[in-house]
Amino acid sequence: MSDNHEKERVGVYVCHCGTNISATVNVEDVAVWAREDMSDEGVVVSRDYKFMCSSLGQEMIERDIEEEGLTRVVVAACSPHLHEATFRGACDRAGMNPYLCELVSIREQVSWVHTDKEAATQKAKAVISGGIERVIENEPLDPLFVPIHPDTLVVGGGIAGIQAALEIADSGKKVYLVERDPSIGGHMAQFDKTFPTLDCAACILTPKMVTAGNHPNIELLTWSEVERVEGYVGNFVVTIKKKPRYVDTELCTGCGICWEKCPKKVIDTEYEAGVGYRTAVYTPFAQAVPKYPVIDPETCTFFLNGKCKACQILCPTDAIDFEQKEEFISVQVGNIILATGFDVFDARRIPQYGYGRLANVFTSLEFERMCNAAGPTNGEIVLRDGVTQPKSVGIVHCVGSRDRRYNNYCSVICCMSSLKFAHLVKEHTDAEIYDFYIDMRTAYKDYDEFYLRIMEEGTNFIRGRVAEITDAARNLEEEGKLIIQAEDTLAGRQRRIPVDMVILALALEPRHDANQVAKKFGISCSHSGWFIEKHPKLDPVATMTEGIFIAGAATGPKDIPSSVAQGSAAAARVLSFIGQGEIELEPIRATINAQQCSGCRICNTMCPFNAILFHEDLMVSEINHALCQGCGTCVAACPAGAISGSGFSNEQIMSQIEGMMRLDMPRLVEMVPV
Amino acid sequence: MAEQFEPIIIGFTCNWCSYRAADLAGTARVKYPPNIRLIRLMCSGRLDPTFVLKALAEGADAVMITGCHPGECHYIEQNYKTLRRYLLLRRVVAQMGIEPERVKLVWASAAEGVKLAKEIEILVEEIRAMGPLNWPGRMAHAQTAAGAMAGHTNGAGISQPIPEEVRA
Known about the structure:
The complex is a heterodimer.
Chain A: H1 4-7, E1 10-15, H2 27-37, E2 43-49, H3 55-68, E3 72-77, H4 80-93, E4 101-105, H5 107-111, H6 117-137, E5 144-147, E6 152-155, H7 159-170, E7 175-178, E8 193-194, E9 199-200, H8 201-214, E10 218-221, E11 224-232, E12 235-242, H9 257-261, E13 265-268, E14 276-279, E15 281-282, E16 294-295, H10 301-305, H11 310-314, E17 327-333, E18 335-338, E19 342-344, E20 361-363, H12 364-371, E21 392-399, H13 414-428, E22 432-437, H14 447-456, E23 460-463, E24 466-470, E25 482-488, E26 493-499, E27 501-506, E28 508-510, H15 514-521, E29 548-550, H16 560-580, E30 582-585, E31 590-592, H17 602-606, E32 612-615, E33 620-623, H18 633-637, E34 643-645, H19 650-662, E35 668-670
Parallel strand pairs in A: 1-2, 1-3, 3-4, 6-7, 6-18, 7-10, 18-29, 20-27, 21-22, 21-27, 22-23
Antiparallel strand pairs in A: 5-30, 8-9, 11-12, 12-17, 13-14, 15-16, 19-28, 24-25, 25-26, 31-34, 32-33
Helix pairs in contact in A: 2-6, 3-4, 6-19, 7-8, 7-16, 12-13, 13-14
Chain B: E1 3-5, E2 9-14, H1 18-27, E3 36-41, H2 49-57, E4 62-67, H3 78-95, E5 103-107, H4 113-130, H5 135-146, H6 164-167
Parallel strand pairs in B: 2-3, 2-4, 4-5
Helix pairs in contact in B: 1-4
């Protein structure tokens, strides 16, 4: 054991927590034991108290530090996640370095989980003994301060990203808004109406897009993707790849002659969800921001066989440039907001629903485009033949959601958007509507009122998951129709309902590349693939990586109001960081002793944060404390023992083990004869 | 009247998942046997294999290593390094004559208080059935036989002074 026991004066404070601890742990006995049996280990004061976290309890500790000259404090109470900061604060006020205080959990890990008072008391002593040995090895630490660069990167130009960018830009700070599609707008730009108010999506979204596009503090980088992220909170260096547009944005006026004259028409699987066409040179939609088109080299006739150039010949400003190459730019930012959105479930994965095989089975996104007045059918709801109006429509909820075969989670928006579809079908046609749901989830403001309204409009609701959609008719009535087979769980019987058209309410899924994106930015994804919040309730837009925030559906299925709220929330968090000018970081960091480092570079590959750099000239590695997150993996890996980890040093852990093992439990206890 | 052996187990927990799972078990008043004593690390990746050997050398009958589920590491991927070290460590302890079952790896997310409690219960039962390890005693005996080897680097190749009890 360390020789520090003679030097250090340790105070031990045992909390009753009302009766939360004292009912199971003999706290008085523990306090006496610490005073008497642990005096050789440096304990000079030991007290028990009803509520150690109360102001009286804290003052007791402060007084002892001042009067008894304590150099170390051990508080045996609740989890450090609850009150570590409280007791560190008390020590700080009394002039002791706060990191010389150790909180030992005897509530969550002893009194609340054990019943035998004798065994619990013994275990409490063992863990406190570990805490005493550990705290003696603690070193005074100072928090790290890092300056915050005032610029911000927002990744994803959907409604959440636009909102975040506008909030920050309006406060006078610069924002880089990166979007991988040719225009900002995201999924919301594809919708016709928005629930429950039925505002036209474009009417409320496009003004925001235009504001973002023209904002003096927003640098819009569309048709671009983040290539690499280096640095750390306050000081990220981000490399952005600008894909070639083949259009010189300095010259282009967005007049539209190029896409009017382009002879190549292809099915637009992105913006039009496969139900409309676009040309090879295109903007996704008329109100696109920016207004500049892009040329898709995969479909452009010139790129395919070297002929055509119609757009170049006809462009009045000579803006078409087939020689354009991809370009990499590097920007420095202090914070990053990821608002990368969602993908929709691929309906082909459920073959019994017939999507892709039965012509008149539509996805929710296809239907959105179809009833959009600016969409491929000019807002007419028609079957795949493009002319026939349906006389009956079936809407199927939970396609890919709440299904153990695909996604366990609820996709949140589909009940409401299905109700909206029912309304839109009613508005555009005379069709009879059958809505198949498992549970109707219409939480939030004015949503259930919307449900009532749709019921009153005469939609037929059938509670039950659809088993199959088929065109195999069993009688004359079903001939030429799509038959929806489902169990009506309210009526308690199977039903077959023939309809002309089926709309599948698709699940929202994480972006197909969410994992790679998370890795690029050093954050984590959940098992399902959504970005993980720092705390799901109390810190929903922050991540475990300082300086990286998340907003919108990238963190899980969300409707428009929630996405907007998260965009604003993330912006507020960023602005508070920028306002502080610098950020305080926990000083739990690894440090390499250059004298001991052999230059083997084993640690270099251990670090996922690229915090370890290797000095080729000196043949030693060094850790950048602003990048280091303090996990300690390199400390454990160093074969030379050259890396030390502050807060969790080898000495601290080894001593804690010794302390914990000092008190043997009675190893052989008499069993009560049965 | 029969006697029951009560093992002592040292558990290493990750600050972000399994330590919080232990907190959650407490908050939910889930019961588990008092034989385990938990040590908090920032990450299971911080687990130096010598910590495990140290715990056994100090008299622990088993060690439980806990961390975030694969793919959910707070530090991106450090629990995979834990897994690698764990697999290697089990071979090392086996070569030292210790049943590898005395070193156990458990993944437990911050939401899995019940799972962690259950795993602790299972390990306590397993070790109870296995009996005491008494490595300090065994080591002392072996070292007396083989001659003093004090100051030698330990199994994981990291210079740590061999504890007095072992050296003796």
